[in-house]
Amino acid sequence: MSLTRMSRYLTACNGDTRKAMILYRKNLQLNLQYTHAKLVAALGFGFWRYLFSPHQYRATGQNLLQIFRARPQSTYSVQYNASYIFGELAKINNLRNRIAHHKPICFIPGHPQKDTTFVRQHYNLILQLFRWLSIDEAALLYGLDHISTVCNEIDTL
Length: 157
What we know:
The protein is mostly helical. It folds into two domains: 1-42, no CATH class; 43-155, no CATH class. It has helices at residues 3-12, 17-30, 36-42, 45-50, 54-59, 82-100, 117-132, 137-140, 147-155.
């Protein structure tokens, strides 16, 4: 276990590692409804992204691309393979990290000029990957999809 994970427990137990481990195990006992589905849902976006990295993709049997049933056929110039998906997920992960770290996403990167192109491109990429996964994005995002509206409002400021 990492020091980062255990630091709270160590602090609560005044640095006593034995007590911190007991507290950690007792905390786990409170999560009685822990299931495989909850474990999968708790995995971070980076975990899913790295399943498409070359080493992990080979280690998992090279069949994970099958989840993108509706992806286009590869061409000579564009190969819609695991490396391609890994790169696209990296773009989304970058956006997610910018949002998580409260960095502005309504400007041209590195400039104080407002521009919603970055957000719109990444949002369209997310929708595209939903379609490749055969997910009905309109149904999934019904009542939640406000990205275009907010981008339009930013553009008119």
